[in-house]
Each structure stands twice: as C-alpha cells, then as structure tokens.
Amino acid sequence: MRILSPSKSLFLTITTIAFAHNVNAQDQNLTLNQDPKFEQLLNEKRKINTSISTNDTYRIQIFSGKSDEAKKTLSDFKREYSTVDGTIIFSTPNYKVIVGNFKTRIEAERNLTEIRKKYKSVFLLKPGR
C-alpha cells in the first residue's frame, strides 16, 4: 500500500469536500393526486373492519382431513349453500373446512341441523375457539 504525501492528501481531501458539498440527493417534491372517493372508501372499510369480530360468532366445522378433500368439500358446500361463508384452515396435520359466521347460538344450531343432512361429521364451534 502506498502512502500519499501530505500535499496530495490535502488536495484529495479538499476535492472530496468540494464535490460532496454540491451533491443534493433526493431533493425533489412529490405531488400525489388521488381520487376523493378513495378516502371515502377507505373510511368505509375501516368501519366495516371494526364491526367484524370473528371471535364473537358461532361457526360450524364440516370436514377435517386431507387438502384435496377439503377443497372439494368446500366447493361442494359453496355450490349448495351460497349464502353461507366458508373457509379452509390448516391445523396440523389436517385441513378443516369451517363455515358460517352466526351471531347467536340459535341461528347456528338451525343451520347445523340443515347442514347435518348432507355432511355427517359436523359440529358447532363456540366463539373464541
């Protein structure tokens, strides 16, 4: 490694400072134009999200098993009961098909008896589980 003489070192330092002084990185202003309806939609979404509480509702489990069978069961269920929501949840080692979002136990039990006619191994999931 070569050591610079004091005069070359001073010249290099002054040159570096002069170039660094003139650098203005990311010194621009950004103007964002957004549709006013976007803010209104965002506020509506916030209201809906606060009103949804998944732990306070009764749900029904209609299947527990392999992934392919769970997907088939859910698609069959959605075809027959289009008004009831459904989802697949993975809980080691099984995939579970959970349906419904019932606010009261009475509503959940009514749907449970109807669903039990087609799906034999169904049971009610209480809130908070």
General description of the model:
The protein has 129 residues and is an alpha+beta fold. The chain has a domain at 54-125: 2-Layer Sandwich (Alpha-Beta Plaits). It is built from four helices and four strands; from the N terminus they run ααβαββαβ. The chain has helices at 6-21, 36-51, 67-80, 105-116; strands spanning 58-65, 86-91, 94-102, 123-125. Strands 2-3-1-4 form a four-stranded antiparallel beta sheet, with helices on one face. Strand 2 and strand 3 (94-102) form a beta hairpin. The longest helix is centred in the N-terminal third of the chain and has 16 residues, at 6-21. It is elongated and about 95 Å long. The termini are far apart.
Tell me the number of helical segments per DSSP (H or I, 4 or more residues long): 4
**Low-pLDDT residue spans:** none
CATH class type of the domain at 54-125: Alpha Beta
The CATH superfamily of the domain at 54-125 appears as Sporulation related repeat
**Alpha carbon gap, first and last residue:** 68 Å
Number of strands: 4
CATH topology of the domain at 54-125: Alpha-Beta Plaits
For the largest beta sheet, what order do the strands appear in spatially?
A: 2-3-1-4
The helix/strand class is alpha+beta
Strand content: 15-25%
Shape: elongated
Q: What string gives the helices and strands in order?
A: HHEHEEHE
Overall pLDDT level = 85
Rg for CA atoms: 31 Å
